[in-house]
Write a structure and sequence with these properties.
Layout lengths: L9 H10 L26 E7 L2 E2 L2 E10 L6 E8 L7 E7 L5 E6 L9 E7 L5 E8 L5 E11 L5 E9 L2 E11 L12 E2 L7 E9 L2 E8 L5 E6 L7 E4 L11 E7 L5 E7 L4 E7 L10 E2 L7 E2 L3 E7 L8 E7 L8 E3 L2 E3 L9 H6 L2 E5 L7 E4 L5 E5 L2 E5 L5 H6 L2 E5 L6 E5 L5 E6 L2 E6 L4 H6 L1 E6 L3
Antiparallel strand pairs: 1-3, 1-22, 2-3, 2-21, 3-4, 5-6, 6-7, 7-8, 9-10, 10-11, 11-12, 13-14, 14-15, 15-16, 17-18, 18-19, 19-20, 23-26, 23-34, 24-25, 26-27, 28-29, 30-31, 31-34, 32-33
């Protein structure tokens, strides 16, 4: 079950013209906190919310706000949510500060122009933004300051990683760290170059786990995203992964990472060479990655963003250790039913046999892999799990793999009272019906998929 002509890059365009496009990880409800401790499915009645604020492929003068409950299916929260009072807005990086406000920092000019400032704006609700100021990055002979990325360290310090070039070679970028010297984020330390990453790297994004800083950075010569580690945010870094080490391909930029509810990490990056925005997952602390997949809905529209993750109120609530039946959200006469160990969606009614009603009744229990998630038992005590992406019931094997296969995370469905069930170990894959059979399929971002994957918990048939 292992998964495996567009507007060109701004750097590519600049190079063509000479021949004649690290961050805060907000986990749980603790702004600025990094690490893995808060990676878990949201508790009943709460939900996960991921927010991005990308500039547009068609317009670098404004940004949209999108949100998602699974880091895969992003929906528009507000179009043209922020337009700066002058200049442009590209590469917007987002984080939530300890003061409760959301902040973005961004590139202030388009790729053709000299750009010595980075912009800042603030919002109380993610969709209404107020311009704060443009900050001139204090580097001698600065030509361009691009792609500022928030990075909140484990000590609570707020930093911006910005890629800068100088007038002696305006296309050769070096990553620098700026540290906020006040809580209002209006004063900054002198820039410090990230030692070991060096020149000709751009879009550097930092993640810290334990005592290790992990840097994901684009090599502008090879066009691959490289990987480096250090014990200090400014280095020295050791670049240990180069070329196509993760299978993401070349002509990729704007890496941004976020931790998922199952503890894995997801990287997003802009495949500007083929006009696709991608994501890829790692569950072994960045050693290996799933095959890159196109991000539904926003791919081809959104450009270069980072992600804020929060736990918010108002998510699905379902009691555990009770029996329920599950009604299709869009075929309301049909219900989950086990048939020869497989989960199908036949019509069930008051005239159905006792055996059919019993086969359509399930016990809801705490998730085998995560107690905040959910698992489901049939009347024989077997658990619902996915196998070859088919939903079926099997005896608990007592293994970690079985526990993950049999755990689902509750996401809000489309019909009133409905829930969508996301696979715990295949994020972005949902229980959905197809030809009245239940499968675990990757979301395609369409309304039909959301409807086919929505089920209403109702009083049990038996």
């Amino acid at each position: 079950m292992t998964r495996r002509p567009h507007t060109p890059s701004r750097r590519t365009l600049l190079r063509a013209m000479t021949a004649l496009p690290a961050s805060a990880l907000i986990l749980g409800e603790a702004p600025g906190l990094l690490g893995t401790a808060l990676a878990a499915a949201p508790p009943s009645g709460s939900g996960t919310r991921y927010t991005i604020v990308p500039f547009l492929n068609s317009n670098d003068g404004t940004v949209n706000v999108y949100q998602s409950d699974d880091a895969t299916d992003f929906r528009l929260a507000r179009a043209s949510a922020y337009t700066p009072p002058s200049n442009r807005i590209r590469d917007a990086s987002l984080f939530k500060h300890t003061d409760g406000y959301y902040y973005i920092t961004y590139t202030t000019h388009t790729w053709q122009d000299t750009s010595t400032t980075i912009g800042f704006a603030r919002s109380a609700d993610r969709v209404n933004w107020t311009f704060l100021y443009d900050y001139t990055v204090p580097i001698a002979a600065l030509s361009r300051a691009w792609a500022p990325e928030w990075f909140v360290d484990s000590d609570g310090s707020v930093n911006v990683i910005v890629s800068c070039s100088t007038t002696d070679d305006e296309w050769i970028f070096t990553p620098y760290l700026l540290r906020a010297t006040n809580s209002a984020l209006t004063a900054w330390s002198s820039p410090v170059a990230l030692s070991g990453i060096g020149k000709n790297h751009i879009d550097t994004f930092l993640v810290k786990t334990g005592t290790t800083y992990h840097a994901f950075t684009k090599n502008e010569t090879t066009k691959y995203i490289e990987y480096a580690t250090a014990t200090s945010p400014t280095g020295p870094y050791t670049i240990s992964r180069t070329g196509d080490w993760a299978g993401w391909g070349s002509y990729r930029e704007g890496p941004a990472l976020v931790q998922l509810d199952n503890g894995g990490w997801r990287i997003f990056f802009d495949g500007y060479g083929d006009g696709t925005y991608y994501y890829s997952d790692s569950h072994d602390t960045f050693a290996t990655w799933s095959a890159p997949a196109a991000l539904p809905a926003v791919s081809g529209t959104a450009r270069h963003f980072t992600v804020v993750k929060e736990t918010v109120s108002g998510g699905p609530a379902l009691a555990k250790n009770v029996t329920r039946s599950f009604q299709s959200g869009n075929y309301t006469t049909r219900y989950w039913q086990t048939q020869s160990s497989l989960l199908n969606l036949p019509v069930v009614s008051g005239s159905s046999t006792t055996a059919e009603k019993q086969a359509s009744t399930f016990t809801v229990v705490a998730g085998l892999a995560d107690a905040n998630g959910y698992s489901f038992r049939d009347s024989s005590g077997k658990y619902l799990r996915h196998y070859d992406f088919r939903a079926r019931f099997d005896t608990d094997a007592g293994t970690s793999t079985f526990a993950k296969d049999a755990t689902f995370i509750a996401r809000t469905g489309t019909a009133t009272g409905s829930i969508r069930w996301e696979s715990y170990n295949y994020p972005g894959h949902y229980l959905r019906h197809y030809n009245y059979q239940l499968r675990v399929d990757r979301t395609d971002g369409t309304d039909l998929f959301r409807q086919d994957s929505s089920f209403v918990p109702v009083t049990s048939w038996a």
